[in-house]
Amino acid sequence: MTPAEETEVRRRQRSRALVTALVLAALVILFYAIAIAKMA
Amino acid sequence: MSELTASANAAGTVTLPADWRDLLALTKPRVMTLVVFTGLCGLLAAPAHIHPVLAFTAILCIALGAGAAAALNQWYEADLDALMQRTANRPLPAGRMDRQSALHFGVGLGVFSVVLMGLALNLVAAAVLAVSILFYVLVYTVWLKRRTPQNIVIGGAAGAFPPLIGWAAATGRIELLPLLLFALIFLWTPPHFWALSLFVRNDYAKAGVPMLPVVAGLRVTRGQILLYTFPMVAAAVAPWQLGLTGAIYGLSAIILSIPFVALAAQISLSGETDPAFMRPERRLFAYSILYLFALFGMLVVDRMVLA
Questions:
Q1: Number of domains in chain A
Q2: Element (H, E) at A9
Q3: For residues B142 and B223, what is the distance between their CA atoms, to the nearest angstrom?
Q4: Residues near B21 by Cβ (< 8 Å), separated by ≥ 6?
Q5: Which of A20, A38, B132, B242 allows an S-S link to B161, with CB 3.0 to 4.6 Å?
Q6: What is the pLDDT, as a whole number, of residue B13?
Q7: For chain B, what are the domain ranges?
Q8: What domain range includes position A7?
Q9: How far apart are the first and last CA of chain A?
């Protein structure tokens, strides 16, 4: 793997990790809200 | 970046991990807009109160299900997409993602959307959502698309499910009004897609997709567009005629259908063969999208006024 490719792989991994973290955080909030809504 | 993509293409394999933007593109977000809107209208038109959080979850599940179906469609059709100008820049044919990732993403998203719908809403909505995903992937993409010019006639059912799912999510039942909305989208799909396929037929011919203009010619396709427009208008007006909606929807359906019929009639009389000059075809394609948005919007307005 060339240095340019390695940099690109790292950049993609970082951005995917960030998006995954945001999606998981959103799901935590959503599941909590669903639980409250079902109990209401 | 383009150099990396080019080298990946040249090698025939992709070693770079997919960018999240390409995963998003795999879900065809623009197509999803209409799916989400008709699903939302089905949910809002239903005669049942639903908690806003659960309503949001139902729409999210419809969107994720549609995204999953789109991803699996692109996974299966990567070879076809590479041959058509309109689709050659999608993540798979452009070499920005490997097929395995697209398959895993599509299956994961589909299973997640159905399970979440079943747990948060009800099993009827989850079952219809599952059927819609499977229908789009197995019946339309795998079975029909490369085999018959009737591909989008039968396959059009896949795009007709969202109002049914939205209604089922709110009520837990399938009733006459959402079935009529299903029929409306089902009958709307052929004129909508055939209008498009008239001016991109060269792309379809190049890819070997047996779309109606490629197999039967321009004249037959133009006639079929007009032919399908009449039952579509009947399906649009039927909810009002059967007393399931009020006059706001009924009159809107009639008024909105007039330009649709006029454009379809204009197309049926046209003998244009150069895609660059197919203006009525382009207009019908654009208007058909506006037509469905407006019709479903007026349905919700009508139901809210009645309520």
A1: 1
A2: helix A3-39
A3: 28
A4: none
A5: B132
A6: 52
A7: 20-172, 175-307
A8: 1-40
A9: 55
Enter the ipTM. 0.90
Q: Which fold has domain B20-172?
A: Tetracycline Repressor; domain 2 (1.10.357)
pLDDT tens-digit series, residues B222-250: 999 999 999 999 999 999 999 999 999 99
pLDDT, residue B297, reads 97
Q: Which residues of chain B fall below pLDDT 70?
A: 1-15
Interface touch A13/B17, C-beta < 8 Å:
yes
Q: Which of A8, A36, A40 sits opposite B4 (nearest CB)?
A: A8
With a CB-CB cutoff of 8 Å, which residues 94-123 of chain B face chain A?
120
**Which amino acid makes up residue B169?**
A
Q: Which residues of chain A have pLDDT under 70?
A: none
Contacts of A16 in chain B (CB under 8 A): 17-20
Question: What pTM did the predictor assign?
Answer: 0.90
Q: What are phi and psi of B270, to 5 degrees?
A: -75, 145
Q: B242-259 burial, b if ≥16 CB within 10 A, otherwise e?
A: eebbbebbbebbeebbee
- Residue B71 identity (one-letter amino acid): A
Residue B265 is given by DSSP the state H
Long-range contacts (CB closer than 8 Å, 24 or more residues apart) made by B253-262: B253/B295, B253/B298, B256/B291, B256/B294, B256/B295, B256/B298, B257/B233, B257/B291, B259/B287, B259/B291, B260/B191, B260/B229, B260/B232, B260/B233, B260/B284, B260/B287, B260/B288, B260/B291, B261/B229, B261/B230, B261/B233
Question: Is some CB atom of chain A closer than 8 A to the CB atom of B8?
Answer: no
Helices (H), chain B: 2-11, 20-26, 29-45, 52-76, 78-83, 99-120, 123-134, 151-155, 157-160, 162-171, 176-199, 201-207, 212-215, 218-241, 247-269, 279-306
pLDDT for the residue B252: 98
The pLDDT score that the predictor gives to residue B93 is 94
